[in-house]
Amino acid sequence: MARNNALNFNLPSVDDLFSTEESRAEARLEKVVNLNPSEISDFPDHPFKVRMDAAMQEMAESVKQYGVLVPALVRPKQGGSYEMVAGHRRKMAAELAQLPEIPCIVRNLTDDEATIIMVDSNLQREQILPSEKAFAYKMKLDAMKRQGQRTDLTSDPVGWKLSGKESASIVGKEGGDSQTQV
Q1: Cβ(74)–Cβ(35) under 8 Å?
Q2: Burial code of 62-86, b = ≥16 C-beta within 10 A, e = fewer?
Q3: How distant, in Å, are the alpha carbons of 41, 68, 84, 123 from that of 127?
Q4: Is the dihedral of CA 148, 150, 152, 157 positive or negative?
Q5: Residue 104 in contact with residue 32, Cβ under 8 Å?
Q6: Which of 1, 12, 45, 62 yields a CA-CA distance of 20 to 30 A from 161?
Q7: Whole-angstrom distance, CA of residue 104 vs CA of residue 35
Q8: What residues does 86 pair with on adjacent strands?
Q9: Domain boundaries of the chain, sorted by first residue
Q10: Rounded to whole angstroms, how far apart are CA atoms 151 and 157?
Q11: Whole-angstrom distance, CA of residue 38 vs CA of residue 12
């Protein structure tokens, strides 16, 4: 028995031995980094269209004058590029304003986490087509169901697995719609 416990003993790294708790905590914090928009690909099957309309032109003018005020949220991809999770309109406005960089928060996210964040951040928009909303609800429902017993993202009691009706009710409540509309 004692031999097994000795094998499970982990030694701290040299960096951990010679760094302060403060510097280790700072290294774990998310930071805003400036990225070239060409390094950021769109979220796959993004249900919300970025329209080239008067509102986008106004946003581009604002970005040209003041810059991007709220960082976008991206996740790293293999090969050193990034995938947009939240901020597709900000990215388009930055490109129209010919900004060389856009401020972004880089966060490691699973596909399901990224989908839920993307849907939630876009459902807050003022003008959403019913078809966009329906597809977004479907994406979020599917992601919530795939999470299974995970409770850290859905804030549900431990061991409660989402079923179709509960998921639709939760998504509807969060989006301001009824379960039957979802």
Answers
A1: yes
A2: ebeeeebeebbbbbeeeeeebbbbb
A3: 24, 21, 20, 9
A4: positive
A5: yes
A6: 45
A7: 7
A8: 73
A9: 31-108, 110-182
A10: 7
A11: 39
User: Are 58 and 135 in contact, with CB atoms under 8 Å apart?
Assistant: no
Local structure of residue 39 (DSSP, 8 states): G
Task: Kindly state the average pLDDT of the residues 149-158.
Answer: 49
Cβ neighbours for 24, distance < 8 A, ≥ 6 positions apart: 16
Burial class (CB within 10 angstroms; exposed 0-12, middle 13-18, buried 19+) of 96: middle
Mean pLDDT for the stretch of residues 38-65: 89
More confident residue, 31 or 6: 31
31-108 under CATH 3.90.1530.10, yes or no:
yes
Q: What is the pTM of this model?
A: 0.63
Edge to edge, what strands does the sheet with 102-106 contain?
Answer: 32-35, 102-106, 72-76, 82-86, 40-41
∠ CA 23-104-80, nearest 5°, is: 85
For residues 94 and 102, the answer to whether their CB atoms sit within 8 Å is: yes
- Cα distance between residue 32 and residue 61, in whole Å: 23
